[in-house]
């Protein structure tokens, strides 16, 4: 009887959490490939979850989806099965390390951009069910500004741009911010500089982008943080285990932990009418139809 009572209390608590929780949508993108965007997304999500937040990663890297590969998991279902109405949103959610929930992308996202109006409404209805299920839904987009990536950047509550100190990565990171801004979209960007050898290098890299954006685009691009260059990261990739799981005390893992704490502490109060999954879908559907 005691176990049954506890189960009932847990159920009531879960239902209460879902009615009060506002799900925030975050897009992670980069100006070019090879900067560690997907690896950052995965470990950032795991660290947020470790800090007590519930997170779902949505792999939106069209044609190059690899969140599952980084975890060494072969997903049974993906977005494709949802769009074909073979499975519900709940059935395509997979679980990775430390019970992190994720939705595999793959070829399904190619279909997403060619949906009929009825299919768009179905997709929206399914995704809307996630509202309140988690604290954060993090979309890992493709590198560069494709039409598909643009839709996720514009619709999200905010976008994290990942770059490295390499000159081409810096140039391409600024280019994606400039392009979104030139289209008249008001997007909340934050910078993450990956693979820095020291804090000074990270600050110098971020300052280059921020100063140019302020001077020529008249927008402020705050720096979320830096991730140290760490041999443990490549070792973890080879093992197909997230580096924050395989090497939790490594320099890169500590960097992600500090960055995640800063992210949470700097979050603005959610807007009930325009934020969360509903606000994201509203913007997304306008762009898709």
UniProtKB/TrEMBL annotation:
Pfam families: ParA. The keyword Nucleotide-binding applies. GO terms for cellular component: cytoplasmic side of plasma membrane; cytosol. One of its GO terms (molecular function) is ATP hydrolysis activity. The keyword Endoplasmic reticulum does not apply. Coiled coil: none annotated. Keywords: ATP-binding, Nucleotide-binding. GO terms for biological process: negative regulation of cell division. This is Cobyrinic acid a,c-diamide synthase.
């Amino acid at each position: 009887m005691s176990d049954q009572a506890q189960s009932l209390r847990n159920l009531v608590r879960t239902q209460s959490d879902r009615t009060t929780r506002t799900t925030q949508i975050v897009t992670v993108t980069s100006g070019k490939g090879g900067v560690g965007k997907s690896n950052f997304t995965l470990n950032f999500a795991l660290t947020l979850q470790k800090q007590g937040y519930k997170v779902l990663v949505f792999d939106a890297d069209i044609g190059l989806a690899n969140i599952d590969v980084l975890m060494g998991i072969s997903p049974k279902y993906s977005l494709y099965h949802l769009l074909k109405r073979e499975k519900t949103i709940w059935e395509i959610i997979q679980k990775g390390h430390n019970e992190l929930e994720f939705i595999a992308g793959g070829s399904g996202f190619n279909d997403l951009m060619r949906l009929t109006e009825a299919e768009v409404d179905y997709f929206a209805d399914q995704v809307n069910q996630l509202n309140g299920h988690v604290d954060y839904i993090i979309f890992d987009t493709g590198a560069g500004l494709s039409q598909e990536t643009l839709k996720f950047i514009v619709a999200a509550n905010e976008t994290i741009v990942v770059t490295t100190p390499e000159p081409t990565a810096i140039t391409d990171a600024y280019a994606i911010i400039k392009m979104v801004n030139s289209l008249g979209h008001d997007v909340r960007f934050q910078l993450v500089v990956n693979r820095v050898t020291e804090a000074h290098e990270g600050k110098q890299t971020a300052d280059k982008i921020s100063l140019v954006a302020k001077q020529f685009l008249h927008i402020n691009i705050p720096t979320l943080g830096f991730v140290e260059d760490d041999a443990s990261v490549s070792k973890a990739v080879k093992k197909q285990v997230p580096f924050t799981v395989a090497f939790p005390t490594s320099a890169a893992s500590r960097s992600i932990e500090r960055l995640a704490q800063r992210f949470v502490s700097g979050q603005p109060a959610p807007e009930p009418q325009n934020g969360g999954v509903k606000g994201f879908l509203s913007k997304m559907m306008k762009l898709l139809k």
